[in-house]
Design a protein that fits this description.
Blueprint (H helix, E strand, L loop, with lengths): L7 H9 L2 E6 L9 H6 L17 H9 L12 H11 L1 H10 L3 E7 L10 H8 L2 E5 L2 H10 L4 H17 L2 H10 L17 H7 L13 E7 L5 E8 L5 E9 L9
Parallel strand pairs: 1-2, 2-3
Antiparallel strand pairs: 4-5, 5-6
Length: 259
């Protein structure tokens, strides 16, 4: 132990511990302008006129600890910090911050609208950590309502949907999140099919947005080594918002007796 009370063995042990974030939200799939960025620094829906959320304790901590990770001095101006974020791009930022967090397992609250934030699979890939869903009751209820279920059947259908949600293999949800990726390919990776560059970009993501032509459903099939599994299908409206989820459990049956 040194003069400051540090124990090297203890320090080394703590640095090797992978943390568990027991309740967190995801990260955005797109760049935020300054106004949108400041709003995620607070639980409020607005910034007080004449002020900035960078002048809060969270704002000070952000510029102190995150700026050096982007190659900047601690406590740079908000403008310099946001400019540097913009130059790196969202994908690189997510990998940098998530990968440096020391978290080995995320329990992810998926209540935020899908398509705007990374899903379970994408978070796991960006952070190199395991990721598990926190099932929000209101989200399950919204999915039930979106299927057209009336008040007389709501409680029954909701109970069934919640039970299926909790029983569904987490890998299936992660696969569906990967299929909901709306990030376009780099221009250098796009083909030339004759439809023009803007349309090539629109058609390049795994999830295609479009009122006339676009993704309307995605399906994941997961099978376990025991022969049991599940099929999960997620439906989307023309604007890309989720409109319902259906789940089917698969069970292995013994082959008929040949004798």
């Amino acid at each position: 132990m040194d003069a400051l009370g540090h124990n090297s063995l203890v320090d080394e042990g703590l640095e090797s511990v992978r943390l568990v974030d027991h309740h967190c939200h995801s990260v955005f799939t797109h760049a935020l302008d300054r106004q949108a960025f400041e709003l995620v620094l607070t639980e409020s829906r607005s910034v007080v006129p004449g002020s900035t959320n960078f002048d809060t304790q969270l704002g000070y901590a952000l510029l102190r600890w995150c700026s050096p990770m982007l190659g900047l001095d601690a406590h740079v101006t908000a403008e310099a910090y946001l400019d540097r974020r913009g130059s790196l791009g969202v994908e690189r930022l997510n990998q940098l911050f998530l990968g440096s967090s020391g978290v080995g397992s995320y329990l992810l609250d998926t209540g935020f609208p899908s398509g705007q934030v990374l899903g379970l699979g994408a978070i796991a890939s960006a952070s190199n950590a395991s990721c598990h869903e926190i099932a929000r009751l209101e989200v399950v209820a919204e999915e039930v309502v979106a299927t057209g279920t009336g008040p007389d059947k709501f409680v029954e259908v909701f109970r069934t949907a919640l039970a299926e949600r909790l029983a569904a293999p987490p890998r299936a949800a992660a696969l569906l999140d990967l299929l909901a990726d709306r990030a376009p390919a780099a221009d250098g990776e796009l083909p030339d099919t004759g439809v023009g560059l803007p349309e090539e970009r629109r058609l390049s993501p795994a999830f295609i947005l479009g009122t006339e032509y676009g993704t309307r459903s995605t399906t994941a099939l997961v099978l376990g080594t025991d022969g049991h599994g599940a099929v999960i299908e997620r439906s989307y409206a023309a604007d890309g918002s989720p409109s319902g989820t259906r789940r089917f459990r698969l069970s292995r049956r013994a082959p008929p007796d040949a004798g």
